Automatic annotation (TrEMBL):
InterPro entries: Peptidase_aspartic_dom_sf (IPR021109), Retropepsin-like_bacterial (IPR034122). Residues 1-19 form the signal peptide. Keywords: Signal. This is Peptidase A2 domain-containing protein. It comes from the Bacteria. The keyword Signal applies. Coiled coil: none annotated. The keyword Signal applies.
Length: 422
């Protein structure tokens, strides 16, 4: 299994969120409601009129951030980071959520201000991933936000590479480049040699990013003046630039020169991926929103599915990761839904990502896991549960689920992931 996660600039919306059985606001204090990280719980609390003033604004702002409504989130959260009527921990949450919203909107300087406000609110230092995100935003503070020209419906052909990852043709500054299509990458990513060939403008900054293998991989930042994907034109596209060896595997037999990450993919709004013989077709179009209730949320720069588990009232928070071949869980999944641990066996697991390869000696294997995605069920066997935790997540949703039916749909406006039949 190859796993690539090329940036740690993923702000966790709610620290310590637990997606066990949902509970409403009755009998729960405000911080418990906030810590649920569940849009349905937030909506129920808002509808109950149990909270008013800054608390209601925090609920509405955090809900807007989850549902990718950045303008509303900015309006509601901006004033809260200095509101002394909120507990310091809640001012910190408001500031962290606002920092993530601003980062994905490309308002980098304002994102730094929000990160610093979060640290000042409670006096607690930022967590390592948050510090990486703050430093990345600081390195970009003088850069304009990425922009997209008119979104005209279109389609792109994708092929599977030898590791099973989807690749498609992209043009950067007029030069063609095959890229892995990866919703799990918080920013698009290229190797140093690829950046030079594509004419990516390098910034005078050294950063560190996280991967599935290393907590900190050294890299740099670059900006592409123009990127064309399927005829849709983007400007000022940020790239993480890594040493060539960081994305080289099996002694150089397999290389990833470039990755197209979430910021570009999310701006295509409504993605539909379907098999086409030995290839796949990615269709995109404007989203009208609406429809069934959301089953996914945005946490900073990562899309998270709220997946139900068969025979359980709990839900798992799984990052939707088109760059992962297989779904995997973190140890926190067993804490959220203890029944998952029945029948698990020790199973050391090899992981590959930016920075190399490592083996999780304490990983376990679940013999069977049935996930419910919208109205579709998918049963997986031999699902690996890694021994480490990742704040706010219970695991990754990979291609084994996404390709279990006749394709899948991701709508970044309606905030829905659906598996397609027929």
């Amino acid at each position: 299994m190859l796993r690539v996660l090329c940036a740690a600039a993923c702000l966790v919306l709610v620290q310590g969120a637990d997606a066990g059985a949902r509970s409403g606001p009755q009998g729960a204090d405000f911080e418990t409601v906030i810590a649920s990280g569940d849009p349905a719980v937030y909506a129920q609390a808002i509808a109950s009129d149990a909270y008013s003033g800054p608390q209601a604004d925090l609920l509405r702002g955090a809900l807007a951030a989850m549902l990718n409504r950045d303008g509303e989130a900015e309006t509601r959260l901006a004033a809260l980071k200095r509101d002394e009527t909120l507990a310091p921990s809640l001012r910190r949450e408001a500031s962290l959520t606002l920092a993530g919203v601003r980062l994905r909107a490309g308002d980098y300087a304002a994102s730094v201000i929000a990160y610093d406000a979060a640290e000042a609110a409670s006096g607690e230092a930022l967590e390592p991933g948050q510090r990486q995100a703050r430093d990345l935003a600081a390195a970009l503070r003088d850069e304009p936000a990425m922009t997209r020209e008119a979104l005209i419906p279109g389609s792109v052909s994708m092929r599977r590479d030898r590791a099973g990852l989807p690749r498609a043709r992209v043009q950067v500054n007029g030069r063609r480049q095959d890229m892995v299509i990866d919703t799990g990458a918080a920013f698009s990513t290229v190797t140093e040699s690829t950046a030079e060939r594509l004419g990516v403008r390098m910034l005078d900054s050294d950063i560190s990013v996280g991967s599935s293998v290393e907590e900190s991989v050294p890299g740099r930042l670059g900006v592409a003046n123009q990127l064309d994907f399927g005829g849709v034109i983007f400007h000022n596209v940020v790239f993480i630039v890594l040493p060539d060896e960081a994305l080289s595997f099996a002694g150089g037999a397999y290389r990833i020169p470039a990755i197209l990450g979430l910021p570009v993919l999310a701006r295509l709004e409504r993605l539909r991926i379907t098999p086409d013989g030995r290839r796949e077709t990615l269709d995109f179009e404007l989203s009208t929103g609406g429809g069934p209730p959301p089953n996914m949320v945005m946490e900073g720069l990562r899309p998270v599915l709220l997946a139900r588990v068969e025979a359980s009232e709990g839900r798992l928070r799984l990052m939707i990761d088109t760059g992962a071949r297989a779904t995997l869980l973190y140890l926190s999944a067993g804490e959220a839904i203890p029944g998952l641990l029945h029948g698990v066996e020790a199973s050391p697991t090899r992981l590959g990502g930016a920075g190399g390869v490592r083996v999780d000696e304490d990983a376990m294997s679940l013999p069977r896991l049935t996930l419910l995605v919208a109205d579709q069920s998918v049963t997986l066997e031999d699902v690996r549960m890694l021994s480490h935790q990742q704040s706010g997540l219970h695991g990754l949703l990979g291609q084994d689920v996404l390709r279990a039916r006749s394709g899948y749909l991701i709508d970044f406006t309606a905030m829905r992931l659906e598996l397609l039949d027929g």
